[in-house]
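Sharing a chain and its predicted structure for anyone who wants a worked example. Both blocks are below, sequence first, tokens second.
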Amino acid sequence: MQRYPSRSDLSDMESYRIALLGLGTVGRAVAELLCTTRDECAARAGRPIEVSRIVVRDPSRDREVPPDLPGEAILGGDAIEAISDPEIDAIVELVGGTEAPLEWIRLALEQGKDVITANKAVLAVHGDELFGVADHHGSSLYYEASVAAAVPILQVIQQGIPAGPVDRLTGILNGTCNFILGRLEELSFDESVKAAQAAGLAEADPTLDISGMDSAHKLALLARILLGCSVPLENLRIEGIEGLSPHDIEFGWEHDLSLKLIAMLRRNSHGTSLGVMPCFLPNSHPLASVRDEDNAVLLEAEPFGALVLQGKGAGGMPTAGSVVADIIRAARGESIATPRSGVLEQITDPGDLPVRHYLRLEVPDRPGVLARVAGALAAEGVGIAALDQPEILDTVGEQVPIRIMTHPVSTTQLDAALALLDEDLRSITRPIRIRIEE
């Protein structure tokens, strides 16, 4: 049984000193958590943890720095100065973006300092370089908070699951999108985004979330560990939730399906498929009931069957919890293993697997339109299993929505059929098509 040091033992130990880069939503939450759990963090780390520097964009602005923050933090605006301070043991990067954080993380690692970050974008794009720098200089780069906020998925994958490859990963990796899709049950898409912004879950510009790119960044980090190599984002199918509406949620209700933005990894005899896309899941699926801003990951492998991890995936405090956990690991000197064996060259498209699809189009309310749509689908061998027209609540002019369920077909084949819609229809409608995961 592990014995934590007593308070008297800790008083004689050298502190682990960190520089906190960024005092936004997550940065403030990290500072608050280090205050409220000061003694527990010190006990778990085996030595006191102190914040020696805080770097913000404008130090002249009033900042909500907790008065009882452990350490005597110097507030400044120069990240390079803080990183170069020889008294600093670790950099906690919580700024976001890629250009400046890339420079800061690289410099800290080159100086032999630990780095803790929640920045999934910089790691997904520049991970090869940064993990290589860490290896070369004997530094450690911790990034648990960058993948699923409060869900300790990296620790489970690296240390907690039995030996053997994970064959399938199915994840809800963006809590903001999950929150928005839940609000679509009652609100329009734009209203649902505003609700997420009001709840502090979405940025003023939510593009990174709703485009699916945030989920793709996180999937790339998970794939790096599961596959032992890096994954080029440009080779992934990445689709977001823009344009979805209550009509789509209503279709799900009618067919016992739940709409989620899914990140997926599938290994089979033909290779490895990776992608992010909105999908309908049967209500019996383990992830179908995941609500609000929660994240969840379903791992499937022969040695252990199926394992689900779920927790808060957005917001300051859930993310801060994983950041502080990484600070404690770094203070204890726990190394973090990041497999590096080149680039995954052959990535297959998850859309190549034939499944049923849901299709919604806004079309003119005129005779013959359905025949024109059916003709385009038939030309590429896409069969219609069911077709209906939902109750018209917000019809604009003469346009009406129609909803179609196809027979099993690949997404690429369905896209080829939609490209055959005549010019009149293409000028009116932007088809919404969603895979139905069986």
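Comments welcome. The radius of gyration is 24 Å.
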